[in-house]
């Protein structure tokens, strides 16, 4: 049976780099965030439900979720966010399961589920065998994200504050890769060690 690994980490932790390294070692990757975005893109599976729940004004002319309008609604009415999640989450779950079945059918020995909100969302924990957290200091997160995105440090800190607190994420981990002050080669070594424990 293939190992099912939940991969998570705060913004700027290096999670995407670790995922790419695991894929290079033979893991199948399933990106829950990308699946979620696809459901609300033009013609996405969530659009009929969004139109029915919130009205046609929440769908753009090209048939995608009007993110700005939805953000304003969710900010004004927290319940709206919950309603949106009730539309999107089952669709994401179905597509994740479909991709996992396809990976197993293709002979994958390890499936890595890239789940940014793994800790925040209680439903993912029981779907994976182990949780791998990529961790670094908050100052490092801020430095990395400002360097790559052009966001101001305070904007990055606000994103970090909206994510699960670092101690909570670490407490949920079965395995932690500390991506602090590592060269890419050193990080690769850490990832390879983790991969061996996943059967890769």
- The outline comes out as globular
* H/E series: EHEHHHHEEHHHEH
N-to-C CA distance: 12 Å
- Sheet having the most strands: 5 strands, parallel
Instruction: Report the mean per-residue pLDDT as an integer.
Output: 92
Structural class computed from helices and strand pairing: alpha/beta
Order of strands across the main sheet: 2-3-1-4-5
In DSSP terms (H or I, runs of 4 or more residues), the helix count works out at: 9
Oligomer: single chain
Q: Beta-sheet strand percentage? A: 5-15%
User: Nearest-angstrom radius of gyration?
Assistant: 18 Å
Q: What is the tally of beta strands?
A: 5
Structure description:
With 200 residues, this protein is an alpha/beta fold. Helix content is 54%, strand content 13%. It has helices spanning 15-24, 32-40, 47-54, 67-76, 78-105, 138-149, 153-162, 166-171, 184-197; strands spanning 3-9, 28-31, 110-114, 130-135, 175-178. A five-stranded parallel sheet has the order 2-3-1-4-5, sandwiched between helices. Helix 2 (32-40) crosses helix 5 (78-105), helix 4 crosses helix 5 (78-105) and helix 6 crosses helix 7 (153-162). The longest helix is centred in the middle third of the chain and has 28 residues, at 78-105. The protein starts with a strand and ends with a helix. The model has no long low-confidence stretch (mean pLDDT 92).
Give the SSE map:
Blueprint: E1 3-9, H1 15-24, E2 28-31, H2 32-40, H3 47-54, H4 67-76, H5 78-105, E3 110-114, E4 130-135, H6 138-149, H7 153-162, H8 166-171, E5 175-178, H9 184-197
Helix pairs in contact: 2-5, 4-5, 6-7
């Amino acid at each position: 049976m293939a190992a099912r690994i939940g991969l998570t980490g705060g913004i700027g932790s290096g999670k995407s780099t670790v995922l790419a390294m695991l894929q290079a070692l033979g893991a199948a990757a399933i990106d829950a965030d990308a699946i979620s975005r696809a459901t609300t893109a033009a013609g996405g599976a969530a659009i009929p439900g969004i139109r029915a729940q919130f009205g046609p004004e929440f769908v753009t002319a090209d048939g995608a979720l009007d993110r700005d309008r939805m953000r304003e609604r969710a900010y004004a009415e927290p319940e709206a966010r919950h309603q949106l999640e009730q539309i999107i989450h089952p669709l994401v779950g179905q597509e994740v399961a479909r991709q996992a079945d396809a990976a197993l059918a293709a002979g994958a020995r390890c499936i890595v589920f890239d789940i940014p909100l793994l800790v925040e969302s209680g439903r993912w924990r029981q779907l994976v065998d182990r949780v791998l957290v990529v961790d670094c200091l908050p100052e490092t997160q801020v430095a990395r994200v400002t360097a790559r995105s052009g966001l101001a440090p305070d904007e990055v800190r606000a994103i970090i504050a909206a994510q699960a607190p670092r101690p909570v994420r670490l407490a949920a981990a079965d395995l932690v890769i500390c991506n602090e002050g590592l060269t890419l080669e050193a990080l690769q070594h850490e990832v390879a060690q983790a991969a061996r424990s996943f059967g890769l």
